[in-house]
Write a structure and sequence with these properties.
Elements lengths: L2 H9 L4 E6 L3 E6 L2 E7 L7 E4 L2 H8 L4 E3 L8 E4 L7 H18 L2 H21 L19
Antiparallel strand pairs: 1-2, 2-3, 3-4, 4-6, 5-6
C-alpha cells in the first residue's frame, strides 16, 4: 500500500485524524491517541502501528517486520519495506490498531464521541423545515362532533 492508500484507509475510521509530527511523520490518531505512524521521508521504517500482543509476536517473526523503535513495549510493530505485508492484511491490521486504541478510551469519552455524531444528525434533522406545496394553507379545526 502506498502512503495515499494508507492515509485514505486510516481516515475512513470514525473520529480519526492526521497530523504531521516529529518533522516528517504522518500520525494517525483517534481522540489524540496514536494508532499508526507513516514516514513521509526516507526512514529505516515506512509504517508503524499498534497491534495485539498475539499479533505482535507473530508479525515480529516475519521478514521486514520489526518491533517499532520506542513503541515496542506497547506492542507496536514497524515495517521496513512497503511490501512487507499484503494490502488486505495491512488494511485489517490497521483496523485492529484503530480498534485497540478506541477500546482503551474511557467509556464516557467513547460515548461523547459517538453521541456527538448522533446529536448533530438529530439537530440537522430538526432544523430542516418542511416545505408546503404552493397554495397550501393551515386549516383550523373546530371542536365539532359529527
Amino acid at each position: 500500500m502506498d502512503i495515499d492508500a494508507i492515509r485514505e484507509h486510516c481516515l475512513s475510521f470514525p473520529h480519526a485524524s492526521e497530523k504531521v509530527q516529529w518533522g516528517s511523520a504522518l500520525c494517525f490518531k483517534v481522540d489524540g491517541k496514536l494508532f499508526a505512524v507513516a514516514a513521509l521521508d526516507v526512514s529505516p521504517t515506512c509504517l508503524s502501528f499498534k497491534c495485539s500482543p498475539e499479533s505482535f509476536v507473530e508479525l515480529c517473526e516475519r521478514p521486514n517486520v520489526i518491533p517499532a523503535p520506542y513503541l515496542a513495549r506497547a506492542q507496536w510493530v514497524a515495517l521496513e519495506t512497503p511490501n512487507a505485508l499484503g494490502n488486505d492484511e495491512l488494511r485489517e491490521l490497521l483496523c485492529e490498531a484503530y480498534r485497540l486504541v478506541w477500546e482503551r478510551l474511557p467509556k464516557k469519552r467513547q460515548e461523547a464521541l459517538a453521541g456527538g455524531a448522533a446529536k448533530s444528525a438529530k439537530k440537522a434533522a430538526k432544523s430542516a423545515k418542511r416545505v408546503r406545496p404552493t397554495g397550501a394553507t393551515k386549516r383550523k379545526t373546530l371542536g365539532r362532533r359529527g
